[in-house]
Structure formats: C-alpha cells, structure tokens
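My convention is simple: the sequence line spells out the residues, with the fold written below as integer tokens. I include a record here:
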Amino acid sequence: MVDIDREQAKSLGMSLNDVTGAMQILLGSSYVNDFDFNNRSYRVYVQADQSFRSNPADIERYPVRSADGRMMPLSNVVSVREATAPKTISHYNLFRSAEINGSAAPGYSSGDALQAMARLSDQLLPQGFSYTWSGISLEEIKAGRQSVAIFGLGLLLVYLTHAAQYESLTLPFIILLSVPLAIMGALLTQWGRGLTNDVYCQIGLVMLIGLSAKNGILVVEFAEQLRARGLSIADAAVEAARIRLRPILMTSLAFILGVMPLVAASGAGQEARHSVGTTVAGGMIASTFLNLAFIPVLYVVVRSLGRKRDARS
C-alpha cells in the first residue's frame, strides 16, 4: 500500500498527478514515440530498470520534480507499507461488490434457490450491505415477471383468431373456458410430483392454451354445424360431444403418450424435462376428460343467454 501525504506534497509544490505519474511511468511504463531503424519501426517506452522496481522500498527513491524545479525523492510525500487486500476489487453499479456463484441443490429449482438467497440476504446482511442479481439469475427473474403478460397475450391471440374465424364474440369465449381446467390439472400434477412452478412449467402452461382450446374447437364447431341443420342448442351440444368423442380421445391420447418420455426422463437436464412434460401431460389429461362434460354445458349456457338477449333486443 502506498500512502500519499497530500498536505506535505502541497507544501513542497508537488501535485498529486506528478506523484502518481512518476509511479505510473517508472513502475508501469509509458509510451513515448516510434523510431525507425533498418527499415523497421520500434516503439519507445519509458520505465525504470528491473533492478529499480523489484523491491517496494524502491518506490520511495523515485525522483519527482517540485514546483521550483528541484528533483525530490518520493520518500518526502509517500510511505510504503505491507497490507492484506484482495488481488482484484470488483465493482457493480459503481459499488464495491463480491460475486457469489452457485447452483440449486438436487430436488430444488433455480427459483427456489433465488428465493432462499434473497431471504438469507435480508436476514443476515449487516446495515449498509445489499445484494442484486446479474447474469442468468437476473434474466430468469425478468422472464418470470413477463410470464403473466405472455400468458395473457396468448389468450388474447387465441380469442381474436377464433372471433375472426367464427365471426362471433361468444363462441371463442366458450372455447377459452376450457383453458382453466387444463391449467388446474397441470398445476395439480406438478404439485403431486413435488415440482415447482418454474420457467419450464410456465412454458408448458402457454402451450396448453392452444392444446386445450383444440378440444373445445372440435365440439363447438360441430355443434354450430348441427345448429345450422335445425337442431336445438342442447341437442346440438350433446350430439357434437358424442360424435367428436373419438377424435378428441385419439388426438389427446396420442399427444399425452408423446410427452411421456419427458415425464419419465433421466440424466442431465431431467428436472427441466420433468417440469414441462408433467405440466403438459397433466393439463391435457384434465382438459380431455373434464372438457368432454363441461364444454357442451358451457355451450348450452352461453348460447341460451345469447339467444335470450337477441330475443329481448
């Protein structure tokens, strides 16, 4: 550690830049210019010889020019001492910082690890200390905050697409009512396996918007065709559910069996595959069997309400 006596330097007519500049040049070197010799260009650096910069005590013998032009040794204004300090001092957002790297223990998600770190930091850090996230942890937290908006945009996209397709504002609403049942099944399956609502689970939930809506589309679209042939609302709903039962079961079971390797995966990355596979499989099982009963009922209720409203108007 080199301590500079600023008051002494000022009284001797030495500026702080002169003192630090002398140490910078003699210890670390300084570029002067280039010169050509034998058709080659060489760079010129100024630096103290190795024998004069191998001992910390040599610093006090370095000369510095004072304001009156005299050369004075640095020992008049600096003192050199040994101290214990880190090899490098890291800064984050202009504050001195210590970087901590870690990973979640087996059986816990990265979200659980982040919450545990935040809880311990709030409890144990002394006054004046704080913490912040960076790198992958920061990106994960930002992505988690966006999941609700992404899920909402997915629902809105499905609704607007079907509203344009059916030229109706009520039919897409019936189809989207199948999504909550799929989400309920997905979250219950996650909870049953001891998994958490992590990023991979949220990806599976977004996928379930389209997958669960598919079952509702098969029933609602065929019910509308039967309504056009003259059947009543209730008869059209029941007949559509009966006729479309086999296509719904075939497509849903095929997809559920297709994600079973993710549910039972092993090896590297198995937690991520378990999470997304369990979410999609559980959601599709609930959507397939519950929506076969709920979608026809919802169709009858919504269509009957719309018919009464049209009759009043």
About this structure: The radius of gyration is 36 Å. The CA atoms of residues 37 and 231 lie 102 Å apart. The first strand starts at residue 2 and ends at 4. The mean pLDDT is 82.
